[in-house]
């Protein structure tokens, strides 16, 4: 874990609707973001791959100076194959 990842995770919890109990989820997004991942694939539909949360996550990451990864489920990435 990086200091930048921890800082961004704390911002995500404070600003992007990650509840306290979802600290690991915020850290997952933060680490992917600070390391410049293009995609973050997850089955976590409650806190990460959630249509209502994605704009808040994107805004928080961009406000911190990062380009957020595209967050999606594996099914969304693969399309209708």
SSE inventory with pairings:
Elements: H1 3-15, H2 23-34, E1 39-41, H3 54-63, E2 70-72, H4 74-78
Parallel strand pairs: 1-2
Helix pairs in contact: 1-2, 1-3
Alpha-carbon Rg, integer: 12 Å
Main pleated sheet: 2 strands, parallel
Which strand order spans the largest sheet, edge to edge or round the barrel?
1-2
- What share of the residues does DSSP label as strand, in percent? 5-15%
Proportion of helical residues: 40-55%
Short description:
With 81 residues, the chain is mainly alpha-helical.
Your description of this structure?
By secondary structure, the chain is mostly helical. Helices cover 49% and strands 7% of the residues. It has helices spanning 3-15, 23-34, 54-63, 74-78; strands at residues 39-41, 70-72. Strands 1-2 form a two-stranded parallel sheet. α1 packs across α2 (23-34) and α1 (3-15) crosses α3 (54-63). The radius of gyration is 12 Å and the shape is globular.
